[in-house]
Amino acid sequence: MTRTVRFLLVLLVGLALLTAAGYVALTSTTRSWFERDLELRAQLAVTAARQSLATNWTSDRARLAQTLTDITRDDRIMAAAACSLEGEELATTASYPAGFSCRSVLERMRLEAGAGATSWSMTPELPSGRIELSVSTLTEGPVQLGVVVLVHDLSFLTRREATTRNLLLLAFFVLSVGASLVTLLAARLSWKNWTLELRRALAGGGTQEFQPLVRDVKSLAERLASEHDREARGGLWSPERLRATLTQHLQGERVVILANREPYIHERGPEGIRVVHPASGLVTALEPVMRACSGVWVAHGSGSADRETVDAKDRVKVPPGEESYQVRRVWLGAEEENGYYYGFSNEGLWPLCHLAHARPLFRAEDYEHYRRVNQKFADAVCDEVDSDDPIILVQDYHFALAPRMIREKLPRATIITFWHIPWPNAERFGICPWREELISGLLGSSVVGFHTQQHCNNFIESVDAYVESRIDREAHAVVQGPRRTLVRPYPISIEWPVHWLSQVPQVAEARAAVRKELGLADDALLGVGVDRLDYTKGIEERLSAVDELLTRYPQYRGKFTFVQLAAPSRTKILRYQELNDRIEAVAAQINAKWTNGTYRPIVLLRVHHEPAAVFRYYRAADLCYVSSLHDGMNLVAKEFVAARDDERGVLILSQFTGAARDLTEALIVNPYDLRQAGDALAAALKMPPHEQAERMHSMRRMVSEFNVYRWAGRMLVDAAEIRRKDRMQGRLSLFPRGEST
Ligand code: F6P
Predict the structure, then answer these.
(1) C-alpha separations of 652 from 632, 637, 645, 670 in Å
(2) Fewer beta carbons within 10 angstroms: which end of the chain, N or C?
(3) In the chain, what are the domain boundaries?
(4) pLDDT exceeds 50 at position 578
(5) Neighbours of 595 (CB within 10 A)
(6) Is residue 455 within 6 Å of ligand 1 at its C-beta?
(7) Which backbone phi and psi does 567 adopt, to 5 degrees?
(8) Which homologous superfamily does the CATH classification assign to the domain defined by 2-158?
(9) What is the C-alpha radius of gyration for the chain, rounded to an integer number of angstroms?
(10) What mean pLDDT value characterizes the chain?
(11) pLDDT by residue (tens digit) across 674-731?
(12) Does the beta carbon of 628 sit less than 6 angstroms from any atom of ligand 1?
C-alpha cells in the first residue's frame, strides 16, 4: 500500500506540473493568436475603408468621422482616430480615449518602432480594462496621407484567460480524483496483469473487446495523416489530382451529374448545326470537372438540333472532338418546361432565394409540373447508374425534390446536392407553400452544399423550423431516423488554367482589337460587365454608376466607355422582358446625356457571346464591374481574374456576392450606393499599375489554389467519407434496395 501511496503522490505532482505548463503554454499561445488576429482585423478594417478614408482625408472631416464610426461597427473595435503625419487630429469617434492624443501616439511609435515604421501597436492598461492601440499608415499610391489609430477592446482576452484557468483547474481536479480512484482500484486488481493485457490489446493482438476500438483509432490516425500529407504534397488541384482522388477514395467510379442546363447545346442555324456553350456559371464550373472524371451528365435537351444529334438512348458524347463523357438528354414538352422551368423554378424559387425585390409567384399547376419533371429526371438518373451505390451530383434549385426520389430507388447511393443560389432565412423561405416538401426532398441527399456558411446556416434554420428532424450542430448535419445529411459550404470556382484562354489573344492584342471593333481610340479607357440579362445582376445600377462617374469626374467624359455583354435569358418571363426594355432605356438615356460626336459611354451588346469572345473582353478591359444585388457566388469575377495573366485590370465587386468573401482585394462596393460605386470606378481608373498588380496577383493566387477541381475534390472526399462510415457502421444494410428512406 505504501508503494501505491507513493505512486499516487508522484502522479498528482506530475499532473499539477502538467496543468501549470499547459496553462502557461495555452495562455501565451492564445494571447499571441488573439494579438495577431487583432492586428489583422485592424489592417482589414483600414484596407476596406481605405478608399473612403483617402477620399475624405483632408477634404471632408464630417465624412471622415463617419467612416471612422463605420469602422467601429466591428464589435471589437471601440474607437478610432485619423491623424495627420504631424500629429494633428483630423477626426475621432466620440469614444476615443482622451489620454492618447495623435501627437503622443505618433511620438511613441517613432520612438519605439523607428521613424520609418508604418504600423505599430501597444497594449496599455486603463482603469476600465486592457486595450490595444494599433496604428496603421494610410497611403494613396506612393504618398503617405497619415495614420489611422484603432482602439481594440482586450477585456474579452482577460475573460478568456480566466475561463481557461478555471477549466484547467477543473480538469486537474477531475483527473486527480480519477487517477486516485484508478490507482487504488489497480492496487487491488493486480495492476500488472491488467496493463499487460491493455498493451497487448492496443498492439493489435489482444482481446476481442478492444479490436473495434483499436481499428477505429488506427484508421482515424491513418486518415488524418494521409489527408495532411495529401494536402501538403498534392500542390495545386488539377484534373489529374481530381482523377487520382476519385481513384483513391471512390475506386475510380464514374460520376452522374443531374443539372437542368446541358453543357453543349446543338442549335440549327442557316449554316447547319452548331454547338453552343450556354452562359451559365453552373456549366462553367462543372464542365471541366466532368472532363476530368468522365461519366454522364443528365440534362434537359433544349437545343433545336438536340434530338438529331443523340443516339438511340438519347445520349451524345462530348466535348465535340474529345468525347470524354456523355450527355443524356431528357425531353420536356412545352407545358412541362413552362411549369417546371419558367414557372416554379424561375418565377417561384429564383425570386424567393434572391434578395432582389422581386415577388415570387407560386402557382399550384407549376409546382405539379415541377414535381413530375423532378421524377422524370430522377428516373433518368437511375437509368444511367451502373451500380446500386453510385455517386450522383444533383445541381441547383431545379431539382429540390429529386434527391429523395433517387434515394427511394437507390437507397445506397451517395447523393451530393449543390444549391448554386443563395438560401434565404427561414422566415423568408417559409412563404413557399411547399416548403416542407422541398426541404424533405433535399434531405434525401447525403450532402447538401452551398457556397457560403451563411447559406448553410439559413438552410439548417429552415429545416429546424419546418421539418421533423434532429440537428447535429457539432457535425453540421440533419438527422432523420437512421439517416443523416451533412450540410457544408463548398465555395465554387472555375478551372485553372482556363482552357478557353488558349484561343484568346494576349492582352495587348485583345486591347487593340476590341477598341478597334468598338470604334474607340487606342488609349480609350474601357470597363466591362458580363452577365445573363437577369434582374439579380444589378445591371441598371451598374449603368447608373457610370453616369455617376461621368457626373462627378468630368475628366473621364469622352474617355471612358463601359461595354455590357448581356446574354438574353429566360425571355419568356414577363419580368425578364421588362428588364430588357428598362436596361435599353437606361443605356439610351445615359448615352443621350453624355454623347459628344461619336462618343457614347455605354455599349450594350445583348447577344450570347461564346466563352472565348468573353475572355477577349476581359483581357481588353481596364476594369470589370460585377454589381449583383444578390449572387450565390458569381464566377464572372473569378473569370476576369483568371484572364489577367498580365496582372493588370481592376475588379469592382458587389459585397452581395459569394465571391466578395474570396476576392477581398477587389474594390468591394454596395451596388445600390451609386456614389460609392462611382467613386470605385474613378479609383479603379486611376489606380497605379503597381497596386493593380499587387491586388491582381493575390486574387490570382487565391483563384488558382481554390479552383473548381478542389471544389469537386472536397465534395467527393466528403462523399467517400460518408460511404466509408456507412459501410463501417453497417448502416447500408438497413436500406435494402427499393425501400424508401
Ligand atoms: O445561378 C444559378 C444558375 O443555375 C447558374 O448556375 C447558372 O449560371 C444560371 O442560373 C443559368 O440559368 P439558366 O440555366 O436558367 O439559363
Answers:
(1) 17, 9, 18, 10
(2) N
(3) 2-158, 248-331+372-489, 517-706
(4) yes
(5) 12
(6) no
(7) -80, 125
(8) PAS domain (3.30.450.20)
(9) 30
(10) 89
(11) 999 999 999 999 999 999 999 999 999 999 999 999 999 999 999 888 888 877 766 5
(12) no
